[in-house]
């Protein structure tokens, strides 16, 4: 059970990934980013998630470097994720994109590398490149992001190595129950990006009522809801007090009724693009 900040899930290849991490989507390069990553590591976070398209891998790398030093830990204690963007959706382009990301991050290897969006059928070429990098031990685990069930079915058909992760938009207004069931059935860990719906749901009366019951914030309730359904979460924040609060999830447990109430908020509503219609 996820009962402390550094609790891990074992992925289908045996790798261990923390249930809770820091996301840095839309955080620009600069001291605020470096400080956020460093603060998260000092506070006990061991998972950091970025992507090539975020344009902030260098700052994330600097934050990791400073955080490791300040926390007195090793690189091996961290789980670092990045993603290949859709302008590199072929085999050679993916290999080059990976080297660029690694160089910007200042790392020797990545713990997890994801295909950021399915885009079109070329994602099979990208997957083949990820498999090559995995076999060469440049990446410890490989996975996908924003894949629907039909994308996963298509990928698994030809894949030599099965994805360990599917990172998707998930929050109380978009519960993705069928996708979650499919991933669990195929031993693919589901991971939620934008778990707090970019703040748009934090004042929902149902969530406020549940939060009051436990003397917690609505953000903490939502993140706990994810963890109790065995979903990895990567809330984004640059503020030290929020980074700390987002990790304060392990001294309460939602009831079955609470969980059902939150599940019932689903409207299949996305704040991000639809993977089936996203035009790159």
UniProtKB/TrEMBL annotation:
Q: Where is the active site?
A: 54 (proton donor)
Q: Name the InterPro entries for this protein.
A: AKR (IPR020471), AKR5G (IPR044500), Aldo/ket_reductase_CS (IPR018170), NAD(P)_OxRdtase_dom_sf (IPR036812), NADP_OxRdtase_dom (IPR023210)
Quote any Pfam family the record assigns. Aldo_ket_red
The NADP-dependent oxidoreductase domain extends over: 31-267
Which CDD domains has this protein been placed in?
A: AKR_AKR5G1-3
Q: Recite the UniProt keywords alphabetically.
A: Oxidoreductase
Q: Which GO terms describe its molecular function?
A: oxidoreductase activity
Q: Which family does it belong to?
A: Belongs to the aldo/keto reductase family.
The entry's substrate-binding residues are: 116
UniProt keyword annotation of Cell membrane present: no
Site annotation Lowers pKa of active site Tyr: residues: 83
The source's superkingdom equals Bacteria
Q: What is this protein called?
A: Aldo/keto reductase
């Amino acid at each position: 059970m996820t009962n402390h900040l550094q609790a891990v899930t074992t992925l289908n290849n045996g790798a261990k990934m923390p249930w809770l991490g820091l996301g840095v989507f839309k955080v620009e390069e600069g001291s605020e980013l470096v400080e956020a990553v460093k603060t998260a590591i000092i506070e006990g976070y061991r998972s950091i998630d970025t992507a090539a398209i975020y344009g902030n891998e260098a700052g994330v790398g600097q934050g990791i470097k400073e955080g490791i030093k300040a926390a007195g830990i090793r690189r091996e204690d961290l789980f670092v994720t990045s993603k290949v963007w859709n302008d590199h959706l072929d085999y050679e382009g993916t290999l080059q994109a990976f080297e660029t990301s690694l160089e910007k991050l200042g790392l020797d290897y990545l713990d997890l590398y994801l295909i950021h969006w399915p885009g079109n059928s070329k994602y099979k070429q990208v997957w083949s490149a990820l498999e090559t990098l995995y076999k060469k031990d440049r990446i410890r685990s490989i996975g996908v992001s924003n894949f629907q069930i039909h994308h996963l079915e298509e990928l698994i058909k030809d894949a030599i190595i099965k994805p360990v992760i599917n990172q998707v938009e998930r929050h109380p207004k978009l519960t993705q129950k069928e996708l979650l069931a499919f991933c669990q059935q195929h031993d693919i860990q589901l991971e939620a990006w934008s778990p707090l719906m970019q703040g748009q749901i934090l004042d929902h009366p149902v969530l406020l009522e549940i939060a009051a019951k436990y003397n917690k914030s609505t953000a903490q309730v939502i993140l706990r809801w994810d963890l109790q359904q065995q979903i990895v979460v990567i809330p984004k924040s640059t503020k030290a007090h929020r980074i700390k609060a987002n990790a304060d999830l392990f001294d309460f447990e939602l009831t079955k009724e609470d969980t059902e109430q939150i599940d019932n908020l689903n409207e299949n509503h996305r704040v991000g693009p639809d993977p089936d219609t996203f035009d790159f």
